[in-house]
Amino acid sequence: MRIYKTRSIATDACKNGRVAINGVQLKPSRTFKVGDTFTVRKGPITYTYKVLQLSENRLGAKLVPEYLRDCTTPEQLELLELARLAGNGGRDRGTGRPTKKDRRDIEVFMSDNYLDEIDDWNDEMIE
Questions:
Q1: Are 49 and 70 found together in one domain?
Q2: I need a surface site. Which of 23, 58, 84, 106 has the fewest CB within 10 A?
Q3: pLDDT tens digits along 17-51
Q4: Does 59 lie in the same domain as 46?
Q5: Number of CB atoms found within 10 A of residue 13's CB
Q6: Statement to judge: residues 47 and 98 lie in one domain
Q7: The predicted structure's pLDDT at residue 110
Q8: Which pTM was predicted?
Q9: What is the CATH number of the domain that holds 80?
Q10: Region 87-111: what's the mean pLDDT?
Q11: What is the domain extent for residue 65?
Q12: How many domains does the chain have?
């Protein structure tokens, strides 16, 4: 149903435990029934789908909503957006690896004290 690009990728996902129904990992040969709800782990996101109808052959992308409903929670979709934003990292494409100075700046930004330093700086500016 177009969750994975090819059947072999879907088979590998099942074998690696990324597809489950009610927390039980599926084998590639498992058949679905109408009304089944299953989860698919892709990266940091866990997608949830509900089977509305069954089809014997491959479908066009426009027909998938008639057969499958996406029930993914908003929290998981928010994780997807955060992962997309974090992937950019603020560096232009093709600029190469970060320099030592870039690495130090990133470490300072990622440290727990960074927000405290900003608050202290803002307090000084207000006074």
A1: yes
A2: 23
A3: 999 998 889 898 888 899 999 999 988 788 999 99
A4: yes
A5: 18
A6: no
A7: 75
A8: 0.63
A9: 3.10.290.10
A10: 76
A11: 1-88
A12: 2
